[in-house]
Amino acid sequence: MQKLIVKGRNRISGTVKISGSKNATLPILAASILSNKKIEINNIPIVKDVITMSELLKHIGSNIKVNIKKKKILILNKKKFLKTVAPYSLLKTMRAGVIILGPLLSKFGRATVSLPGGCAIGTRPVDIHLFGLKKLGAKIKIKNGYIIAEAKKGLNGTTVKLPSISVGATENIIIAASYAKGVTYINNCACEPEIKNLTDFLKKMGIKIFWTGKRKIKIIGNQKLRSVKHSVMFDRIEAGTFMIAGALSGKKLKIINLESKILKKELLVLKKMGVKLKIKKNEITVLNSKNIKPASIVTEPYPGFPTDLQAQIMVLMIKARGISKIKENIFENRFMHVPELNRMGGKIKVSGNLSTIHGPQELNGAEVMATDLRASVSLVLAGLVANNRTVINRVYHLDRGYENLEKKLRKCNANISRLNY
Ligand code: UD1
């Protein structure tokens, strides 16, 4: 086991380069199942979830090579995969693994994928994924904790109106429809930038995909695919996390390798909170920001404020002068960082999906426990501004999705280290 030690109150400054997006890489890797042509994916983040997804692909017979040094993945699949079964052992740590269901089913006419089960931030069912695949013609049953799906003659294009917005279900259905016969219309889909990155990848592979409205896609399925070279978009959650780090304890923090226009909502919230920002097309500089103001935010699907940045912005709210409020609209149990932040001196009350943050409060280092990926980084942020030493246990959550977090922070003068115990 490992833990992080943060000695607080070092002002951070310098330049941070944002890595490729984990949430864009995972569906692109799943979509690679459709093709037998050469695939080159660049700018992948070297994080645990990406490694787990490549292990999952290897397990089912994909010929995938991860070049850690060059942050590149090469895939050249044989016509026949060895297996169409994704076991629980590979899905239990990474729920996103369920997005291989659509491509396996569409390409091979069958798939058996473990139900990912619950996770700390909520029950996270997969009913919307299954609803969409059934519409495309799949027969699905659940047995012994596995989703067993079949479409002997392949999937057929149709109109799928999603009952509610889901990122993963949208991705699963887009990939499945890309290899289905005929035309599929998906309405009420998620429109996260990572999904656009996936549709760009599929377009390069030869699928005709059109965004016909904000939450509407038209897909003309195609089984003759081309080889493709694609670069994964930047990680907008990592970018947001560093903007908040800069607002909390920065002298002058330049964040590069991003697209500011994708971060509109986050930038609006930070500006309203009084954070001083210099915004260019591909870089954002956070300047020394005093007098942070409170805010009220609601987490929503894109283009709303991301749930994946909720725990981090809460730390900035602890430092704001006045009462802030957060309504968590996406996951039912995503305030697990609150007791830990309160142990460090935060004054946060939770009632259902609403939290009220009374600021400003002085934070004091403590031994705390990371409970999920984004909660763990919020504890790092709190540690950066706290007095004395913060010890963060269960860092494996952080390693699922942040590439070189400590290295990047250390380069900016933060005092952070990792201990084996
Ligand atoms: C993705 C992101 C995750 C982010 C989330 C919301 C990846 C790998 N993960 O997760 O970081 O926090 O989007 O932006 O991209 N739901 C159902 N039934 C379903 C599917 C979802 O009820 O079949 C519910 C979920 O429980 C949740 C909501 O819909 O309450 C949104 O979940 P969804 O958008 O599917 O999140 P993920 O794709 O799992």
Give an account of the 3D structure.
This protein is an alpha/beta fold. It has 2 domains: 2-19 and 234-420, Enolpyruvate transferase domain (UDP-n-acetylglucosamine1-carboxyvinyl-transferase, Chain); 22-231, Enolpyruvate transferase domain (UDP-n-acetylglucosamine1-carboxyvinyl-transferase, Chain), CATH 3.65.10. 31% of the residues lie in helices and 27% in strands. It contains 14 helices and 24 strands. It has helices spanning 22-31, 48-59, 88-91, 101-108, 127-135, 167-178, 193-204, 236-249, 264-272, 310-318, 337-343, 373-385, 396-399, 405-411; strands at residues 2-7, 12-17, 39-42, 64-67, 72-75, 85-86, 110-114, 139-143, 146-150, 159-161, 183-187, 208-213, 216-220, 228-231, 250-256, 276-279, 283-287, 296-298, 322-327, 348-351, 354-359, 367-369, 389-393, 415-420. It has a 4-stranded mixed sheet with strand order 22-23-1-24, with helices on one face. Helix 10 links the parallel strand 18 and strand 19 (322-327). The radius of gyration is 21 Å and the shape is elongated. The model has no long low-confidence stretch (mean pLDDT 95). It binds uridine-diphosphate-N-acetylglucosamine. Uridine-diphosphate-N-acetylglucosamine binds next to helix 1, helix 5 and helix 6. Uridine-diphosphate-N-acetylglucosamine (UD1) binds next to helix 1, helix 5 and helix 6.
